[in-house]
Design a protein that fits this description.
The protein is α+β, with helices and mostly antiparallel strands. Helices cover 26% and strands 30% of the residues. Strands 3, 4, 5, 6, 7, 11, 12 and 13 form an 8-stranded mixed β-sheet that branches. The protein has a two-stranded antiparallel ribbon with strand order 1-2. The chain has a two-stranded antiparallel ribbon with strand order 8-14. Helix 2 packs parallel to helix 3 (131-139). The longest helix is centred in the last third of the chain and has 15 residues, at 153-167.
Length: 171
């Protein structure tokens, strides 16, 4: 996929032009927001069918201690898209107005790869598309599946919302 670039007059610098879009696809260079969300020229895209650890979330190590699995998921997604054209196919819209998409970079499906590498859970509440990849990642004890006790991000978010509700003033 060829990307349109704008040559800045006299500077010799190229920057990506606006994303190519239609009703069903967004194509262009991506900026990673977190382990399951990217932005292509102002289009916020949530990777459909997966749920990566939240940015501040930690996970248990196999032997002892913890690691910042949320930051690691973000870095893994950044490594998959950096310097590549990304194509996202629309699969709907989430409750926050973000496009739900299945995204590709150089022929690699990002959603599938994030789960297969142990950087995201299959979001079975909404999709079973990546159950086999999660089972293989669990069997291989990759990433977040290195131990059985790591909290899925949907539970992590619920716990943090409950805590915030108790601390917030009424009304």
């Amino acid at each position: 996929v060829a990307l349109a670039c704008v040559l800045l007059a006299g500077l010799g610098e190229q920057r990506p032009a606006a994303a190519l879009t239609d009703q069903q696809r967004v194509i262009g260079p991506a900026t990673v927001i977190d382990g399951d969300t990217i932005d292509i020229a102002g289009h916020r895209i949530r990777l459909e069918g997966i749920d990566a650890p939240e940015s501040g979330q930690t996970c248990a190590r196999r032997l002892f201690g913890t690691w910042n699995c949320g930051a690691a998921a973000t870095k893994a997604l950044r490594n998959l898209v950096e310097g590549r054209a990304v194509t996202c196919e629309r699969r709907g819209t989430d409750k926050y107005g973000r496009m739900l998409g299945v995204c590709y970079a150089d022929g690699t499906e990002l959603n599938r790869r994030m789960v297969a590498d142990g950087n995201a859970w299959t979001f079975v509440k909404y999709s079973t598309s990546y159950v086999a990849e999660e089972q293989q990642a669990r069997a291989g004890r990759r990433g977040i599946f290195a131990t059985d006790g790591n909290q899925p991000p949907w539970d992590y978010r619920n716990r943090h919302w409950a805590s915030a509700e108790q601390q917030a003033p009424s009304g």
